Amino acid sequence: MIYPGILSRRFEEYQSPLKFVAEHVKSTLLNYCEEKGYAFMSRFKSIESLAEKIETGRLRKWSEINDLFACTIIIPTLSYEPDTISFCTNQFEVIDSRKRGETPKAPETFRYDSTRIWAKIKIPEGLDTGVGISIYDILFEVQIRSAFEHAWVVSTHPLTYKTNSVDWRRLRLSAQIKAVVEQLDTTILGFDDAALNIFSSSWRHIDRKQLITNKILGLLENNILPPESLPKDLSRFSDNLYSILRDIHFEHNVKTVLDLIEYEINTSGVDLFPKSISLLQYCIAVLFSNNIIKAPFGNYIFHITSELLDLYPYLAAVETFFDYSN
Question: Are 269 and 244 in contact (CB under 8 A)?
Fold first, then answer.
């Protein structure tokens, strides 16, 4: 692509301060995304793309260019967007923003509509930025997309907009896929309510895992189990306990096992419930002490720790355990 010399010179002048801005912004947002478990990506605008943007006729002057550097925060669902917007607002000097749904569009239209924020690095109080190109004058863009929306963008954008082909059918197909993406995001936002409209079928494995989760929640509500013993993910706990019972072919007796665990907790009392082991480790000890788990132990790898052995020395007989030394 041929572009004018003045564009090339101006573009080169901005490269050094732009890289500094990019490193600052990336460092700030990457830390946030890693803490939250979000995906993150960034890019510098090429001189060819910049030339094409100027040729759209929508920009009046150089200072209106707002995406020489741009980055994208990819959130799991749209419910996380307000917190992400708030973080960006607190960290940067927001010059302008366009939130999802603010751009007018007909109800039958499906196009890119992610939230975008245009900002600058905040000027430290009392700092004189001097003359010339300042890092505090450079605009950058932050886009916030849902995971579904991001998949649509990276999948269809090169096929419909970054291409040598102008084809009504390709644009139509891209819009149809975007409609599906919007429906997915809407469904996820109202997931719990939507799930109530699904006709439920009985499945013994799910029914038994529900018994486990309901029992643990009941023990907590009745102050039989201390709240700090609650696993991070109760669904994962039920999976793990049920996996053990299936491995020893005892899954048909889930209720018996749960009643036994409740009896053991009641016998010792909530105040004496061990605080140095996990709830699943406690359940394993109960299963062993009542001869429900017997040698050979099957394929399950037990999490046997020194804290567990201090309380229940008989678990030293377990040979299939997680090895921390290798």
Answer: no
